[in-house]
Amino acid sequence: KGEKDHCENCRPISLLSIVSKQLERCVLMNIKCHLSQIICKCQHGFLRGKSCVTNLLEAIDYIGRILDNGGQVDTIYLDMSKAFDRINHTKLITKLRNYGFG
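The chain above was modelled as a monomer; its predicted structure follows.
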């Protein structure tokens, strides 16, 4: 807005260098590779292609197979809302270091 000759009328733009984008991609690939080795395959949270719905479908399938074979199923449901807010962050950082982060 205003006259184009005045600097205060122009908004600056920022272009990330291609090198930094490639470095970021390499770091991300290494983190994903490391996490895939330590995260259990049954984990559904915060993973691409998995969600609460896929977790629920897997649980229903598992329970259905047990019941079809005459078995018994006992379940416990926990509410983990606000769990991260209540966690001891010092212990969390220690755990992350034990897994090779930091």
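The two ends are 46 Å apart (CA to CA).
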